[in-house]
Design a protein that fits this description.
The protein has 154 residues and is α+β, with helices and mostly antiparallel strands. It is 50% helix and 17% strand. It has a single domain, classed as Beta-Lactamase, CATH 3.30.450.150. The longest helix is centred in the first third of the chain and has 18 residues. The chain is globular, with a radius of gyration of 20 Å.
């Protein structure tokens, strides 16, 4: 009887383990790939920015302040990245909403309506975000996108 109960418990635990979902996430190798691509894009454009990479919850995985950008760019890059990660859309979408008169975006948690943050999406799910600050907003976004493109290239 005891053997039968142990067998049933073992079989049940294997069933539960098989049902656990798997998820994609940003590991150190992915972060290094994106940081290197962002640095290459900065050199190509002859700009120096602060780069921030976060996970899907907005937790910092990588932060690098360039030599020339102001100290405020650290917070700007982090906030842009959090916006992109939390809302699964570029931080420019928040800026566009605000320009369109939607003041609610100013009160959304972790929203930062300023171009430069881009979500990292895999299989339709946001697994993190990259953001830059220190150049013009469109250049910040282009550098962030170059980092993502390097990670997701086929």
């Amino acid at each position: 009887m005891l053997k039968r109960i142990i067998f049933m418990l073992t079989a049940a635990s294997l069933t539960f383990a098989a049902e656990l979902p798997t998820r994609k996430y940003l590991d150190l190798s992915a972060v290094k790939t994106m940081a290197a691509a962002a640095e290459a894009e900065m050199k190509k454009r002859n700009v120096d920015v602060t780069l921030c990479i976060v996970d899907e919850s907005g937790n910092i995985l990588f932060l690098q302040k360039g030599d020339r950008p102001g100290n405020n760019t650290v917070q700007f890059a982090l906030r842009k990245a959090k916006h992109a990660a939390m809302y699964g859309q570029p931080s420019k979408a928040g800026a566009d909403r605000l320009k369109g008169g939607d003041q609610f975006v100013m009160f959304m948690p972790d929203a930062f309506p300023n171009q430069g943050g881009v979500p990292i999406k895999v299989d339709g799910k946001t697994i993190g975000a990259v953001a830059c600050s220190g150049a013009s907003s469109d250049v910040d976004e282009a550098i962030a996108q170059a980092a993502i493109d390097a990670l997701l290239k086929p």
